[in-house]
Amino acid sequence: MTDDRDLLARAVELARRCPPSRTAFSVGALVVDAGGVVLAEGWSRRRDPHDHAEESALADLGRGWRAPPCTTVYSSLEPCSARSSRPLTCTELILAAGVDRVVFAWREPSVFVDGEGAELLRARGVEVVELPELAAAARGPNAHLLEAR
């Protein structure tokens, strides 16, 4: 059995790779199979200034990729439920891929939008686990956004 805390800590560390932004959070994400094998990793602004972490990781798996049973997305921040830069939110991308479990560290604060990704995922049958003991580490690369409020 894989350790959610260790895998989520890896996702949190990926957020430190994000180019800084004043208009978007720095987030890291992993896609992990049932056996604990990391299938993909991503972080915000990895290839494009508008990339989100979950979007980046899922894109590495290919267009139309479908998650095998018991696939988990680990994200340093609750998956987004609203965005203006792309047609699909990370919540919608996770649902479209058939991911059945999401583990995150930090609930999206209402700096840019009111986040409700966890609620939307749960409503569609996805198991959602929040590990708030890693929230402070996930906030670290985003301190400049939080201080500006």
UniProtKB/TrEMBL annotation:
InterPro entries from the UniProt entry: CMP_dCMP_dom, Cytidine_deaminase-like
SUPFAM superfamilies, A to Z: Cytidine deaminase-like
Single GO term (MF): catalytic activity
PROSITE patterns given in the database record: CYT_DCMP_DEAMINASES_2 (PS51747)
Ranges for domain CMP/dCMP-type deaminase: 2-128
Pfam families: dCMP_cyt_deam_1 (PF00383)
Protein's name according to its UniProt entry: Diaminohydroxyphosphoribosylaminopyrimidine deaminase
Organism: Pseudonocardia hierapolitana
